[in-house]
């Protein structure tokens, strides 16, 4: 396999200069010594408190490792506490034993001159020997931290002079750096060809800047050795596949392979430049180069779209879609739809122009598609992509299509009218929500995610990416979860109960302890040195599956139950609807823009509410059995009583109907709840609600229910205030009513 990208452009002469300019000074060094505990290039510090070295094995630096072994390998934790932290290069060197002499020791623990003088004097007893001391010399040793007198005119003390000679008399700066990092692991790039050395330096620099993956000298040493042996001048002289195929066993493990691929990617990015200018003409777009963040390695590959004229149109369409803000997921579907269009339309791939797209061709395409993709919903989405493509080509005159080159609504497959309910049956939910089973989730992040999904119905991708400071309070002190609705690209809030609040607070603590600078509530545990990245949804899916298996969760028939993360969302919605939370409120709780989606749940509820209610009586939403008789007249009475209890709370859009929010502390906070109020579009509801409330009050008064009447008076007053405010606002408001949720900023409790 040959990578087209790697061979596409010949390496031009200006390239090395450009590379040189891109590599920062510290990564241009021939020998690169990472700082101790550097999160990317280094290793954690030695476990001995006060030791300045990096750990190498078992949490100890080589010096302490040696001492610990010499001490007979005692219990390491205890030993570490008592060990002398000083290591070579940091322990002061001993001076000559003659009082006031500051030269280093040479022989007999005396300096060079005094050792000779002592020999000459016939080695007398030291306390009776009083030699001359040569006054104070001009300089002390130039190695920082060494206090010995300099000798032999290179500026070093006796010992450092010897070591300097052994190193081949390097420059003073180099020698000082060498001493300071003595014993530390290092990237030794000296044997590499000059350009290759720069390239590796650049790749290391990119790794540091990306701040994700640890790359220590040891981990890529086999790779560097191989590069030296290969005699290569540049990584770009061979495609990645060829490099990988030639790696020796020692270098053919994950880290060096990944580093090699990464280095080549970084270099290609630098060489070919980023942005549309360079990327558009390619047939494989690297989204990273187009500024699409968060999808490091993602590509859009158009090579399978044939022939070239269709590929050019496909690229043009995708670029236009991207500039309209269409997300990566959709773009991938778009691309795939066009690949299949080119494969499934007879003769298209070998055609010379858009004339080939006539009605006959499109019908043949539809027929083939129906065979290849039997599922109507999937096929319909695919046909939708192609329809949009043809439409855009015609609308923007990118090419002259035959007049009949379009698809119509009647070309779409028929779809089932009512989608099957996707909520998790309460029978299964009862098992999932049992405290014993919840306690079996060992990872607290997963446990919290499960609770969040059950209680708020958030999408899993929104829940994993919750910010660390995701809790907000309204003026009444009621708590909301603030999240980013990634699908709709907007911020949203959902009310939460005290229990969930407490769980989130505990997690905030946990996260802050492990990652003091983290911005996310649930950080991923690997390749994430600063806690910037959230736990991947894949981790959740995996652990959810394992948990279901460990708990042996079954359906009513005793079969193992299969549950997906997204089903929790349908479950939350269904529960709300079945507890008669008004559709409008559910829509806002789920942060749906249109009513269509929410209406699906409601329609379901129309026919099943009574059954659902009866089932809810047997097992309530927390899985606890409820002790009432279900059969007989009592059941009807109970049912009515429950409805009545809810009807008492007449509020703007019905009533505060969140029975799941058992511990919501502020019933009256509903009136300031951002989910409820103050956009003018709801005025009719508010007015009608006012009438209803008043009717309720007078009925309550006639029946002598003073308490009920009183409660609803407060409601009446609040409604009057709301209506009055909205009516005034409506006159000032100049925003389009369509975006009323953010209109005028008049929502009473916008997140602080
Ligand atoms: S007060 Fe009512 S509407 Fe407001 S958050 Fe609590 S339950 Fe929801
Ligand atoms: Zn140490
Ligand atoms: Zn001396
Ligand atoms: Zn010295
Ligand atoms: Zn859904």
List the helices and strands and how they pair.
Layout: H1 4-8, H2 14-22, E1 31-32, H3 62-70, H4 76-82, H5 112-120, H6 158-166, H7 172-180, E2 187-188, H8 194-210, H9 217-230, H10 240-245, H11 254-272, H12 276-279, E3 284-286, E4 299-301, H13 308-323, H14 328-344, H15 359-372, H16 376-395, H17 426-432, H18 435-438, H19 444-456, H20 460-464, E5 471-473, E6 479-485, E7 490-495, H21 498-514, H22 537-551, H23 565-578, H24 583-590, H25 595-618, H26 633-647, E8 650-651, E9 654-655, H27 683-703, H28 706-732
Antiparallel strand pairs: 1-2, 3-4, 5-6, 6-7, 8-9
Helix pairs in contact: 2-8, 8-11, 9-11, 13-14, 14-16, 19-21, 19-23, 23-25, 24-25, 27-28
Organism: Mycolicibacterium agri (Mycobacterium agri)
GO molecular function: DNA binding
Domain Tyr recombinase: 423-614
Structure characterization notes:
The protein is mainly alpha-helical and 752 residues long. It has five domains: 4-43 and 185-272, no CATH class; 112-180, no CATH class; 277-411, no CATH class; 426-662 and 670-676, hpI Integrase, Chain A; 677-752. It has helices spanning 4-8, 14-22, 62-70, 76-82, 112-120, 158-166, 172-180, 194-210, 217-230, 240-245, 254-272, 276-279, 308-323, 328-344, 359-372, 376-395, 426-432, 435-438, 444-456, 460-464, 498-514, 537-551, 565-578, 583-590, 595-618, 633-647, 683-703, 706-732, and strands at residues 31-32, 187-188, 284-286, 299-301, 471-473, 479-485, 490-495, 650-651, 654-655. The strands form four sheets. Strands 5-6-7 form a three-stranded antiparallel sheet. It is extended. It starts with a helix and ends in a 20-residue tail after the last helix. Mean pLDDT is 79; it is low at 1-10, 604-669, 672-678 and 731-752. Iron/sulfur cluster binds at residues 478, 495, 656, 658, 661, 664, 666-667, 669-670, 673.
């Amino acid at each position: 396999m040959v990578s087209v990208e790697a061979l596409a452009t010949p390496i031009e002469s200006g390239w090395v200069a450009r590379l040189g300019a891109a590599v920062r000074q510290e990564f241009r060094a021939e020998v690169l010594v990472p700082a101790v505990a550097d999160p990317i290039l280094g290793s954690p510090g030695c476990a001995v408190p006060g030791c300045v070295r990096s750990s190498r094995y078992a949490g100890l630096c080589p010096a302490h490792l040696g001492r610990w072994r010499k001490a007979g390998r005692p219990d390491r934790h205890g030993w570490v506490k008592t060990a002398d932290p000083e290591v070579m290069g940091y322990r002061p060197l001993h001076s000559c034993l003659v009082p006031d002499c500051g030269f280093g020791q040479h022989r007999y623990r005396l300096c060079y001159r005094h050792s000779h003088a002592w020999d000459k004097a016939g080695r007398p007893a030291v306390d009776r020997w009083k030699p001359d001391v040569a006054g104070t010399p001009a300089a002390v040793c130039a190695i920082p931290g060494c206090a010995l007198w300099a000798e032999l005119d290179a500026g070093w003390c006796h010992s450092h002079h010897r070591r300097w000679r052994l190193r081949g008399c390097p420059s003073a700066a180099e020698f000082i750096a060498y001493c300071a990092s003595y014993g530390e692991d290092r990237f030794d790039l000296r044997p590499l060809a000059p350009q290759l050395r720069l390239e590796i330096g650049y790749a290391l620099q990119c790794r540091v800047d990306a701040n994700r993956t640890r790359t220590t000298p040891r981990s890529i040493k086999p790779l560097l050795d191989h590069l030296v042996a290969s005699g290569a001048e540049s990584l770009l002289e061979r495609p990645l596949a060829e490099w990988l195929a030639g790696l020796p066993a020692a270098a053919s493990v994950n880290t060096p392979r990944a580093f090699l691929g990464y280095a080549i990617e970084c270099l290609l990015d630098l060489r070919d430049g980023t942005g549309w200018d360079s990327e558009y003409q390619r047939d494989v777009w690297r989204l990273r180069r187009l500024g699409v963040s968060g999808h490091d390695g993602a590509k859009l590959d158009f090579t399978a779209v044939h022939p070239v004229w269709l590929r050019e149109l496909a690229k043009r369409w995708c670029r236009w879609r991207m500039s309209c803000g269409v997300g990566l997921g959709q773009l991938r579907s778009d691309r795939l739809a066009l690949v299949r269009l080119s494969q499934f339309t007879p003769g298209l791939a070998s055609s010379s122009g858009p004339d080939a797209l006539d009605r006959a061709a499109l019908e043949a395409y539809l027929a083939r598609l129906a065979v290849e993709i039997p599922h109507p919903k999937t096929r319909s989405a695919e046909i939708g992509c192609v329809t949009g493509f043809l439409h855009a080509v015609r609308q923007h005159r990118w090419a002259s299509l035959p007049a009949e080159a379009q698809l119509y609504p009647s070309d779409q497959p028929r779809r089932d009218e009512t989608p099957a309910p996707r909520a998790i049956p309460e029978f299964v939910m009862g098992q999932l929500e049992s405290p014993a089973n919840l306690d079996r989730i060992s990872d607290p992040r997963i446990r919290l995610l499960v609770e969040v999904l059950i209680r708020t119905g958030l999408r899993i991708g929104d829940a994993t990416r919750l910010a660390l400071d995701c809790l907000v309070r309204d003026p009444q002190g009621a708590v909301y979860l603030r999240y980013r609705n990634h699908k709709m690209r907007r911020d949203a809030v959902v009310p939460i109960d005290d229990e969930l609040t407490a769980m989130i607070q505990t997690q905030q603590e946990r996260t802050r302890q492990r990652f003091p600078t983290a911005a996310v509530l649930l950080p991923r545990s690997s390749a994430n040195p600063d806690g910037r990245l959230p736990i991947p949804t894949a981790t959740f899916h995996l652990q959810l599956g394992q948990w279901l298996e460990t708990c042996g969760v079954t359906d009513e028939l005793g079969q193992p139950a299969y549950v997906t993360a997204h089903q929790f969302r349908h479950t939350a919605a269904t529960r709300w609807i079945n507890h008669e939370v008004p559709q409008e409120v559910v829509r806002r709780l789920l942060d749906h823009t249109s009513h269509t989606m929410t209406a699906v749940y409601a329609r379901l509820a129309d026919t099943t509410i009574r059954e659902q209610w009866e089932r809810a009586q047997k097992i309530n939403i927390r899985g606890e059995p409820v002790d009432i008789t279900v059969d007989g007249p009592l059941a009807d009475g109970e049912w009515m009583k429950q409805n009545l209890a809810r009807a008492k709370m007449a509020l703007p859009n019905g009533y505060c109907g969140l029975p799941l929010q058992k511990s919501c502390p502020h019933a009256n906070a509903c009136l300031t709840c951002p989910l409820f109020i103050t956009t003018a579009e709801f005025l009719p509801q508010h007015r009608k609600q006012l009438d209803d409330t008043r009717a309720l009050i007078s009925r309550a008064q006639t029946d002598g229910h003073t308490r009920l009447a009183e409660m609803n008076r407060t409601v009446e007053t609040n409604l009057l205030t709301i209506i009055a405010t909205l009516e005034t606002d409506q006159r000032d408001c100049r925003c389009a009513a369509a975006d009323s949720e953010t209109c005028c900023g008049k929502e009473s409790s916008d997140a602080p």
